[in-house]
Amino acid sequence: MCARKLLLILATAALAACGAVPESSRRAPQSAPRPLAVNPDTQMCLAGLNDTGSRFSALPDRFDGPGCAVTGAVQLSAVRGDQSQLGVSNIGAVQCRTAQVFAEWARFGVDRAARQILGSPIARIETMGSYTCRNVAGTERRSAHATAEAIDVAGFVLADGRRISVLGGWADGSREEREFLRVVHASACKRFGTVLGPQYNAAHRDHLHLEIGGGGFCR
Ligand SMILES: [Zn+2]
Fold it and tell me: Which residue of 6, 162, 198, 219 is 20 to 30 Å from 186, comparing CA positions?
């Protein structure tokens, strides 16, 4: 390569680097990820979720058949407690507004209750997932899980290593563990439209079903 040509290439690269070359004359790199097309409501929700201190990434919309769709959803990996981040395991896609209410519940309803009742903050909330394309058991009606608007919470791991599960702790835990589970259940009822736990039916003996919609059904 001749020196003049090399100089020209270097000069062009330098101009591009400082923004002097117009956008249209730059070639986009082949591997550049295409940004998600996000509607304004979702965008506002994502900003609100970000304000809660949660760690998440926005997911592309998907449609899996009649009544089954994930739109404006996120992959949540952690939410903020008062003193540190709380991990969230096994959760999958969650609709943004549901994730936002979950993050607020985790901090103000769960982490604080754990410190007051059990003497340790929460390290991780264990879930049994969110999105599944299915009906409410025994009905023809789509579950809130079919639109990623419900989360099933199975248990809580404390910073001191203890693990309190809904299955083991609701009826058979220590007095403090039983109290803690009832307090987090009650605070979920203040924030979510539908909350179902072990006292609802046997299908919920091992988790709390937290759902945005439903207008105040708390069992
Ligand atoms: Zn559920």
Answer: 162
